């Protein structure tokens, strides 16, 4: 491919896009909206995933000690628990400590607890950390069987709910991505078809004087790809700004809510949108040429 | 250099357009293809340009079997054929110069080659002064001369003319015929489908007559009817 041929492709592509400005603008707009919806869902599922992982990573099991258990047994329990398979660490929390923590959490309403210091209703407990999320259930079952352990609790249901939610979302997202991609493909295809139609005489003459199919295709493929890139880039920019604001807001106002970091994740998202835009533009243009090339 | 070997063509709608047609055309010949409308002249031209494939038989141009060419090779074949149509088929938004240059651009000729060759072609067809005009500012004869210049742009070995004078008055037709003869004298092989009996009778060349898809006559220096 000679340099001046490539220049020719771009000149022709830009010329056509100007000629059909309104239509091109409309299809960039539609592509843009589709990519924003797409990117939004990608962001939501990726963040739910991230949260599930985060909760899983923090999995801690609380084992409550029966009221009548003596100090000796507690020492023994500490030993036994730390030797259970999958346990990373054990921390004994006395009922006094537990009351203190509760007080801290209540903050200004701490006085609610006044009087309980002398007659502490809380139990001693062990905070058990597992080395991985999938061992939590096994550890909880073993803890339950130990003598002197009254009750075991862990965040299993919350985690499972979160995982179920992301899975449902992911299936929905795959359908949505497929549907939106096909819709975008058809929008771009019809836009490019207009310019192909406007140039049908030229295409016919090009065929007769022996221009290659690819020579004829490139200006149209470029148009489709440029539309796709433009839509994806603007959508990426909009998503970037929104996410950036949201990320900063959450970091200050809801600090315990984990959100995916902007780099590299959002950069990656914009990159993928652009690649998607190019691909859809390419195939849309290929399809729009169709029978006009069969002369 | 160009052979039709027992070529038959039946279209999808069962119309038999050509029935076992054979002929050979040598380099530098001028051949009229005559016969009534629908006799099969256009089919012969479409087979030559590989727009259609024969149902049976072979078409050979310069040792290449046209009907077996892969799609990607058809473009290369067409660069060796110049085509002139009855309805000129010029691009209305391009000037005379641009219309001729376009044919060279799209086969990726260099800018220098285009700037060198297009003025020569326009001089040959006598339209050097009109190179900035648009097709709708030209007469039919002038438009057909531009179309001829375009057909010659990539220096083809064979010129295929489909009723080139069909839309022109007799005087203008003669201009075009004089140009074709001139090009032929310089060595171009010309195949021209025509209805114009007066032309065929006055400007004698080989005549192949097609009727109902069959070749009924093939005479050197023949007339339209005998």
How would you portray this structure in words?
The complex is a heterodimer of chains A (295) and B (226). Chain A is α+β, with helices and mostly antiparallel strands and 295 residues long. Chain A has helices at residues 3-19, 21-57, 71-82, 95-106, 136-145, 156-198, 200-209, 213-253, 262-289, and strands spanning 60-65, 87-93, 125-130, 149-153. In chain A, 71% of the residues lie in helices and 8% in strands. Chain A has a four-stranded antiparallel sheet with strand order 2-3-1-4. Chain B has two domains: 1-80 and 158-226, P-loop containing nucleotide triphosphate hydrolases (Rossmann fold, 3-Layer(aba) Sandwich), CATH 3.40.50; 90-155, no CATH class. Chain B is 33% helix and 28% strand. Chain B has seven helices and ten strands. Chain B has a six-stranded mixed sheet with strand order 6-7-8-3-9-10, with helices on both faces. In chain B, strand 9 (205-211) and strand 10 (214-222) form a beta hairpin.
Poorly predicted runs of chain B are: none
Can you identify the CATH superfamily of the largest domain in chain B?
P-loop containing nucleotide triphosphate hydrolases
Tell me the domain tally of chain B: 2
Widest beta sheet: strand line-up of chain A: 2-3-1-4
Largest pleated sheet of chain A: 4 strands, antiparallel
Task: Indicate the radius of gyration of chain B in whole angstroms.
Answer: 17 Å
Task: Give the tally of structural domains of chain A.
Answer: 2
CATH topology (fold) name of the largest domain in chain B: Rossmann fold
Question: What is the makeup of the main sheet of chain B?
Answer: 6 strands, mixed
Q: What portion of the residues of chain B fall into strands of 2 or more residues? A: 25-35%
Based on secondary structure, the structural category of chain A is alpha+beta
What is the second-level CATH architecture of the largest domain in chain B? 3-Layer(aba) Sandwich
Shape of chain B: globular
